[in-house]
Specification:
single chain, alpha+beta, seven-stranded antiparallel beta sheet, 37 strands, about 25% helix
């Protein structure tokens, strides 16, 4: 009965011995020795292949054992049967031990490989950064050059570039290939490349930004003081100023693009900067991406950003303050609609101006049908306080020494000529300071200030006249934090307002909140399911987010087993399947 199981167990133990032998090559290396190991990738691939063999034999062993156990009849058993069952149980216990040892061996090799990749990363990063600086290329332009305009830098291109840039000091080829796959298997996408090449620091203690490395030089000038929490992009360095024993970098502030030298660490070891990931944000709701840092006009909008869109910080945060706006409560001359309208908004855009076409009678005066007062008829008398709109004039009547206008009464639309100033200087009508002309479409709202969009009476159209009932009154605004960002989806560039409702800090790691399949293609329809993602699993973003109809998808890699594929962040009904993990506290 136990014979077939013993055969499988023997094959399993042989496979495990082969895996142990393959892994031993790296497992026994010291931390220093592993950094010069020439064939880490070959060893890793051999262990992964042998692990698959072991895993397959484990499943076969369990199946055979179960089949053999079922052949043993229930009830009274012979001594041989009992011994056979014990042998099968012992075999299962050995299987568990083999499973534990094989997993441990593979994990140990992966850990050693990660150590090599992490150690080589700064060396390769420095080569890329130096080349980009020499060519005066931003990270994105450098990526496009290396990728040939495609969405990835191939493994072959990556390895050749490192060898070319390093020259005679090129790292071990397998270690370079290992680094490439460690960062992103199948070639590097734009986000992976930029995250690798770019390096950022956060100011943890206020320090001066100067125009040169030598801080003790008499020619050194302070550009300004770097504030706590300000983010600096590394452009050059770190370099040590030998005269004073401090380590400095040349960097660019994301807050205002000031570029200069800043101290990384003082001569007593005091840290002034802390390395952080580049800031990214994710949209929470549909948000306008605007061309200018300060503008509320409709033509300032680049496009609407959609929920889940990922935004790369280009500049900021910048605190923006505003001058008080001006609002007037008025009555529309056309239909009598009453409400508050904006004369000048917080950015200085003017929506309405005082209208000198409207006159108010200061005393009773005749409206005539003709300009010539010697040859005219009275249309009617205008009462003191009555309003009329000027259609022509004022015109001086030289021989009579008076000033006349042609106007239309707001009371009954009677049209005629009116004397606004007599020959003795008497004023009969004067321009009203109680009317505004609308210069561009603007909402008329019920209250001051406007508390919600639902309080709109109607939209006032360009050219409308408004009679002032109250105001102008100042409307004060709280400062806003503005960010200049670039959308990863299409490269759209512009400004957004940072608050909890619109955006939140983003990392490329998502936690599954609803079980969902991993597909082999961006479009879910017709794609092959690779496996099911369980609640609580973590996925690292490789590409996206991207639209699939009304759903939002990403290409990601599972932390659990390295499976890469496409998953749905938010389905067509708006339900979230993943939530982005918050940045580390240091960020």
């Amino acid at each position: 009965i136990s014979g077939p199981a013993k055969e499988k167990l023997a094959a399993l133990e042989e496979a495990m011995a082969a895996m142990t032998e393959a892994a031993k090559t790296m497992q026994t290396l010291s931390a220093e020795e592993v950094l010069s190991f020439a064939s880490p990738l070959t060893t890793l691939e051999a262990c992964e292949n042998q692990f698959k063999v072991v895993s397959k034999l484990l499943e076969e062993m369990k199946t055979v054992t179960k089949e053999q156990q079922e052949k043993v009849p229930a009830g009274k058993r012979t001594t041989a049967m009992t011994e056979a069952l014990r042998s099968l149980q012992a075999g299962l216990r050995k299987c568990e031990l083999v499973k534990k040892n094989s997993t441990g061996a593979l994990d140990a090799v992966k850990k050693q490989c990660a150590t090599i990749a992490d150690a080589k990363a700064p060396e390769v990063r420095a080569l890329f950064r130096k080349e980009a600086q020499t060519k005066s290329l931003e990270a994105e332009a450098y990526f496009l050059q290396l990728s040939g305009g495609s969405d990835k830098i191939s493994e072959e291109t990556f390895c050749k570039l490192v060898a070319d840039l390093a020259g005679g000091d090129a790292p071990v080829p397998e270690q370079v290939k290992l680094l490439c796959r460690h960062m992103q298997a199948g070639g590097w996408g734009r986000r992976t490349f930029q995250a690798f090449v770019q390096q950022y620091f956060k100011v943890v203690k206020g320090i001066a930004i100067t125009d040169c490395l030598d801080i003790a030089s008499a020619q050194a000038k302070t550009l300004r003081k770097a504030e706590v929490d300000e983010v600096i992009e590394l452009l050059e360095g770190p370099e040590t100023d030998a005269k004073v024993g401090i380590t400095r970098i040349r960097g660019r502030s994301l807050m205002d693009s000031v570029t200069g030298w800043i101290t990384l660490k003082g001569n007593q070891g005091t840290p002034f900067l802390q390395e952080v990931e580049k800031p990214f944000y994710a949209c929470q709701v549909e948000t306008p991406l605007e061309k200018e840092i300060k503008s509320e006009s409709g033509d300032n909008v680049v496009r609407a950003l959609k929920p889940e869109e990922v935004l790369e910080l280009v500049e900021g945060p910048r605190k923006t303050t505003f001058e008080p706006g001006l609002k007037v409560k008025g009555k529309a001359v056309s239909d009598g609609a009453i409400g508050w309208f904006c004369v000048r908004d917080k950015t200085g855009t003017v929506f309405a101006e005082a209208d000198n076409k409207y006159y108010s009678c200061t005393s009773s005066i005749a409206m005539t049908d003709n300009f010539d007062i010697k040859d005219c008829k009275v249309v009617r008398k205008l009462a003191a306080g009555e309003l009329f709109m000027v259609e022509e004039g004022p015109v001086q009547v030289e021989d009579a020494g008076i000033s006349r206008v042609k106007g239309k009464s707001l009371k009954d639309e009677a049209v005629g000529w009116v004397t606004i100033k007599g020959n003795a200087g008497t004023v009969y009508a004067e321009a009203s300071n109680k009317h505004f002309c609308i210069l561009q479409d603007v909402p008329l709202t019920k209250r001051f200030p406007t508390l919600s969009a639902g309080e709109e009476v109607r939209v006032l159209a360009k050219g409308e006249a408004m009679q002032v009932l109250e105001g102008p009154k100042e409307e004060n605004f709280q400062p806003e934090t503005r960010l200049k960002v670039k959308a990863l989806s299409d490269g759209a560039l512009g400004w957004i307002t940072k608050n909890k409702a619109t955006v939140k800090p983003w990392t490329p790691y998502y936690k599954c909140t609803t079980a969902t399949p991993v597909h082999d293609a961006a479009a879910a329809e017709g794609a092959t399911v690779l496996r099911q993602v369980e609640v609580g699993e973590t996925f690292e973003l490789l590409e996206g987010p991207m639209q699939d109809g009304e759903a939002i998808r990403i290409k990601g890699k599972a932390e659990k087993d390295g499976v890469a594929g496409f998953v749905t962040l938010r389905d067509s009904e708006g339900k979230k399947h993943f939530e982005p993990l918050p940045p580390a506290s240091g960020n």
